[in-house]
Amino acid sequence: MAESGTVHYGYSRKQKSLGLLCTNFLGMYDREGIVTVGLDETASQLGVERRRIYDIVNILESIGVLARKAKNQYSWIGFKGIPQALKDLKEEALKENSLNPSTDVATEVLDNEEEVKTFNLSHNPNASLSTSSVLSVKSKNVIDQRREKSLGQLTQKFIKLFLVSDVDTISLDDASRILLGDINDPSHMRENSAAKVRRLYDIANVLSSMNLLEKTHQSQNRKPAFRWLGFNGTPDNSKDVAVLAKPLSPNQFRSDRSSRGAVCATPLSPKNPIKRTFGTDITNNAEMKKNKVASLVDGNHKKMKTERDELTEGNHTAHKQLGSKNYVFGPFEPAKVIKQEESKDEGMRYQDWENFAADFQPRYQNQALGDLFEHYVEAWKTWYNKATQECDNNKQQHQPSKSTGDQPP
DNA sequence: TGGTCCCGCCACTCC
DNA sequence: GGAGTGGCGGGACCA
């Protein structure tokens, strides 16, 4: 359960978003030469718990970016796997659609005209979103209920909502209701809705960080909604999965500042760069834990806030300093980001994970963090000198003729 | 105050 | 039986 009774000074949950974690994950692996992905290595490199990696990996696997290889090991397929995965998903959905003559789920779930308008279903019968296309996936797997509820499966169902119709935008409420499966049991639906909505947020975070999805709001009621960016929102295009908006490679990410000003890896959003988008914050547990500890040690909350502000400003400075050089892994960056073209060894592969881990050991490259630690070091030196001096004075009072030669570290 | 989503408990699966 | 996996929901954070 979440920590209770503790206040996280200098901590922002935004900095740990699943979307940003995904961005950093992709930034770490989306390069030539990557063959396998190890969960433990990834978790330690990204400074997050293993549990979070499972979330990312499940979603990425469901869209063809990864393939499970063995325990703790995944094969890296990369963005090139997405078109095929989407194609398969669409074919699967259409097949299900044809097996079970459709009941338009949109008209059942979206019982008001405005919602239906927003839902924007096509007149094209092939493109209509049917109950079966979404729900039969569930009914055929009743036995394996656990798997049925997996994040990966939910991701696929969610994507199918867009793939088998010309649905461009779907509200969070509707998505959760549709994905619940049993639209005929409103009480049961409501009961599960809250839980599933949480998962949708997780999924949306990840998909948004890959630029496949965009979070938006319904114009009429400002209710949260998701917009599919994968194919320009037209039914014709939806038939050609290859029209998928190509997810950005790490080089295409830009350094950006979150609402708190932290430099972060952010996919170039095609629109609305002002509002907070998913996956726009740094994910750095290690740093935040340091802040937490520091704040507990000195107990000076205002000081921490000031330092955070300095950090923010420093990040901005770091951003400027880095200029157009690729993108920033939050306040960290891999020590050595090797690209194939930069590597003389064409056959180089990161199969030696110890070497890989060493190569990608995050190191502080952020000016602000450097300043912050320098500040602590200076404070420590000052304190140490003072303490030593007082100690000397005390000693001199007792042994006036003796002096110490201790120096601060 | 409602939306968002991190966090970690713990049930389940696999070896 | 222990390690790996991941569903789930409480509750903190944010606008």
From TrEMBL:
One example GO MF annotation: DNA-binding transcription factor activity, RNA polymerase II-specific
Major site of localization recorded for this protein: nucleus
Ranges where the E2F/DP family winged-helix DNA-binding domain occurs: 13-78, 146-230
One GO term describing the cellular component: RNA polymerase II transcription regulator complex
Keywords: Cell cycle, DNA-binding, Nucleus, Repressor, Transcription, Transcription regulation
InterPro entries membership: E2F, E2F_WHTH_DNA-bd_dom, WH-like_DNA-bd_sf, WH_DNA-bd_sf
Subcellular location: Nucleus
Keyword Signal in annotation: no
Ranges that cross the membrane: none
Domain of life, per lineage: Eukaryota
Family recorded in the similarity comment: Belongs to the E2F/DP family.
Identification of the protein by name: E2F transcription factor-like E2FE
Protein species of origin: Acorus calamus
Lineage of the species this protein comes from: Eukaryota, Viridiplantae, Streptophyta, Embryophyta, Tracheophyta
